Amino acid sequence: MTSVRTRYAPSPTGYLHIGGAWMAFFNWLFARSTRGTFVLRIEDTDPSRSTREYEQAIFEDFRWLGIDWDEGPDVRGPYGPYRQTERTALYHRHAQELLDRGAAYHCYCTPEELAAERKRAEAERRPYRYSGRCRNLTPAQRAAFEAEGRKPTIRLRLTDYGEIIVVHDLVRGRVEFDPEHLDDYIIVRSDGTPLYNFANVVDDHTMAISHVIRGIEHLSNTPRQWVMYRALGWTPPQVAHLSNILGTDKKKLSKRTGDTAVRDYRRQGFLPEALLNFFALMAWYPEENREIYTIDELIEKFRVEDLGKSSPIFDMAKLTWLNGVYMRDLLSRDPARVVGACVESMRGVGLLDGPVAPDRLNYIRRVVEVLGERIKVGRDIITYGDFFLTDVVSYEAEAIQRYFANPKTAEILQDLAARVAGAGEFTAGEAERVIRTLAADRSIHSREIIHPARVALTGKTAGPGLFELMELLGKARVVRRLEEAVTYIGRNS
RNA sequence: GCCCCCAUCGUCUAGCCCGGCCUAGGACACCGGCCCUUCAAGCCGGUAACGCGGGUUCGAAUCCCGCUGGGGGCACCA
Of A77, A237, A373, A384, which sits 20 to 30 A from A181 (CA to CA)? Predict the structure, then answer.
């Protein structure tokens, strides 16, 4: 058996989409699991929408995910070039070959004429198929069209193909298509540029791609492509078509129901290994009763045949949980990665910009330490620890209601502020001692101090342990916030 | 409209190919409880699914047919 070569072929018309990354991931997994080759090919045949900036961005997103490629525009390789716009000679050659073999023909119909045909079909409520008017043009007729100045497209002969086209899909099994329902489709535009279905076939073959895992939307394209392979005398690759990821509205994943770009997830502070683990779980469970897998385990266990057939819904809650599992593990093993994810999300919301100063980074490290297991995603440093990062404490409505209502509260907090101010070296232990003593002196339960104090210091009812949080905030900030709370309560009661 | 694909808890899925081991397993989410200065984490427990209708069979989530529902394709987009 010749070696496995898979590919992912993005169009550089935007950032790497979650759905695209998901597809790419399986092609990559398959290549890695068979010690094969993973190729990145840029499909930039639509010049109006493709840019080099997006191409770079896609590379960057893949690198972040940890999906590497053996051949591609930037690393080159024996089957290059890897950008479709640089392969035009190849398309011309094979288009000519198709023409010479009589498998394709020039079509002089204008877009307007075709639109009219389509409209007529619609009016008569029958499925539209190209009429085939140009299928058997005589040299004289062609000359006449040319004289009119018409530029022909090239169409592949398909309507009279004659036999059922069989696609052997690795995950769906045998799928049959009757060419009766297909028509002669355009493979080269009148300006000479190739269309997707054609360029794709030429590239996959000339790049010796052995397996293609792609979206279900391409299943209907497959019979068209298979006819072309046959006409050219080529063997088509093995294919597997996966259903698309859906949003919570059960529609194709879109901005409406959540972030769609890989970099959005990076900005929120997700971990690439968690995202990849989650990607796997959206298509298959390598083992029963197990959710957490390292990339190496996924590579080892991967089998195309095991991939699911139905469309998964992107479950944010599960991704978040999974990310939390990884974050907790990292907390002891490699806390710098957790800090990294937090920094990423702080940049995302503008809390950080440019290089981070060493003392600032140190402080963030301590915040992460104090927040600990509460951080499931990098952005949680903001949702749970904003009071560490900014100087304004805004009290949650519920917090005020629950813990600032007691008439004694202001007095207690005032007392606490005074005692903190007079305390010794301000560690968590010292903070605890101060509060316990205060509770004993006033013969109240420490709860009656702890909760209001937490609200005064953080604005929230939930959060890290009060004593740890006080230590990190430091004596000065604690005293100030306590006094601010006293003022606030006085003003609002 | 025509063609194609899909269908197990709210969600991701195991089981389906090779019918009985399935009174359908796990995980997320949700709801209780424990722990506790709150939250998170952790631990314990709970609710919850074979879309419907016909077959085949002693027996069907598993095989067959139909229906319904969802998705995709039918471009000089990819």
Answer: A237
